[in-house]
Amino acid sequence: MKCLVIIILLSLPLLLSCQSNNSYSVTSNTSVSSLFLSQHFPKPTTFEIESEQEIFMLDDEMLEMVEKNLKSNLNIREKSLKLLRQIFSDEKNSLNYSTHANLTARQTYHSHKANCMSLTIMAYALAKAANLNVEFQQIDVPEYWVRNGQYNLLTGHVNLLIKPDVYHDRKIFFGNDNVEIDFDPYVVKQTFPKRVIAKNTVLAMFYNNKGGQALVDETYNIAYQYFKAALMSDKNFSPAWGNLAILYRLTNHIDIAEKTYRYAIQINPNNLTALTNLAILLRSQKNDLEAEKIESRLLLKRKTNPYYYAVLADEAYYKYDYLQALKYYKKAIKLNKKIHELYFGMAKVYYQMNRLPEAKRAIKRALILNKTKSTEYQYIAKLNFLKAETTN
Fold first, then answer.
1. Among the CATH numbers 1.25.40.10, 2.40.50.870, 3.40.50.970, 3.30.1050.10, which is that of 306-391?
2. In terms of DSSP bridges, do strands 194-197 and 179-181 run parallel, antiparallel, or are they unpaired?
3. Model confidence pTM above 0.85
4. Residue 218: its H or E element
5. What phi and psi values does residue 135 have, to the nearest 5 degrees?
6. pLDDT tens, 174-215?
7. Which residue in 11, 82, 313, 332 is a FRET match for 52, CA 20 to 30 A apart?
């Protein structure tokens, strides 16, 4: 259940070349204000963006739960575990994971669907109400994409860090260590770089996700409002600049799209998705030399990442090139044999190639490696379908 921090990746070339040894860098002296085109994307009259207060607010029922269950003399570890038990209590154990459930704390608490970001926002708000010393952490997971229609969405990850209280430069330890609350079992078991981020950055992520979904839904005026809100919350949130550039490209504001891509990269030179999208734009403008320099740099960064080959496989699958898709999945699995999504992707390819026994074996392997119940149900359903196919 990765926290989806939506960074949209346009259709990839099936293979990036690595022929140029020239270094590549992006500089820009663009005025930030010149990158907004509010006159071209008027706000719909009935549309209002959720305020920070609305996103993190608790209602009376939630506050009563905090007062009853979390305001006690328990140490931080015990309080954190109790908080998790409350989130996944019997009455909420039917909670369904939905990638697109970008919900406020209240909506998440009362809803039967949520994604990792909305769960993290809700848990933060509840922890704050319980007087826990809680902060957001960004986890630098490898690039990992999921497809949504014609787009690939790059996931990021955020969790919570609960620390001992500090009073007047004197630390009061209720437990032996900090506590992390994380809704992704895969991330919990891995060691990735992490850093504390400010609440306004999480707010920017929330708005960026809402904008990304609006862009996929082709409600471009709403997408613009959310991307601008994200950048008003954190002007240095590079993914939102990259997504704004995509919006401009899709609406034929090509020159400003290129400037906005470059600004996103200036803020964060490691925004590989913005670099990829810039290279795609440059190719469309016949600026092949600069595009090739970017592509060479990207390949050097990504060639050991199995998820990169997975997205290439997905692109090939989307274009009905099943042999090429199979090659990329095999390359990804050679890099990491423990990623269940790779075997599921391979099973889809085998099915399209009418290689049903191999599809069954791939699904079974995905089932063994998967650790989440909701995905397990999906894989079992696919396996049962394949079994029925092979017996007919």
1. 1.25.40.10
2. unpaired
3. no
4. none
5. -135, 160
6. 444 678 888 775 554 566 788 999 999 999 999 999 998 899
7. 82
